[in-house]
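During the reporting period the student researcher (J.K.) took over the structure-prediction task from the postdoctoral fellow and processed the backlog of single-chain submissions. One of the processed entries is reproduced below for the supervisory committee.
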Amino acid sequence: MVLCMAIAAGSMATADAVPRRIILGRHGEKATAYALCKRGQQRSLALRDQFLGRSARSQALLEGQDPVAFLAITPHTLETLAPSARSWSLPVVMFSQVPQQGESTATKRQLQQQRTREAAAQVLSNPTWAGGTVVMAWEHRTIANQQLAERFPEQPVTLRQLLNLDQLPGVPDTWPDDTYGWIWIIDYDNAPSPIPTGFQMVREAFAAPYSHLKAPAWGTPVPQADGCLP
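J.K. obtained the following structure tokens:
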């Protein structure tokens, strides 16, 4: 079973121990506020087998390096990374934001932003992860969202801002609501500088039995599947 760890971190930690690479993606397709649908579960297994697991077919993302950490924020993101993390005998480090009955949307989003700031601060300052590859599955709204960023001009609220991706050309300012199946690769080659030196967008394509999960073009909705929310 994957061990879930809660970490409390100051959102303003000094960036002095940056990773070599961050592999950042959205959670798989979901059935409820807490669980992935069948397609989302299949995507989590496909990610393990193709890209992120110990015996992954492709080394395009890990480049032969063992990951040093897997990070998640919600039950969906935990479920997405659990198979890959388990294959490395690593925990999924949770900056937990779990839906609560009766919780307002505003409260939920405020906590999600707080946890996102804490996670980014840890990623850019944790000496245990310095020089390694950190894998993150996150909520798309706090990966990149231009409208959200404009609502909080005095304080970074998305990973695009917090990981300094806004200082590179070609990084989308918003992760579309209906876009699944893409991975962002962020490289930091000038350690200990927290300014990334490279960015790639990888379109997920899997071997059988998961070949049906190939992602459409960026910004194009994935085909609707039974049991999955739109």
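The committee noted the following: Residues 1-15 have pLDDT under 50 and may be disordered.
J.K. will present the remaining backlog at the next meeting.
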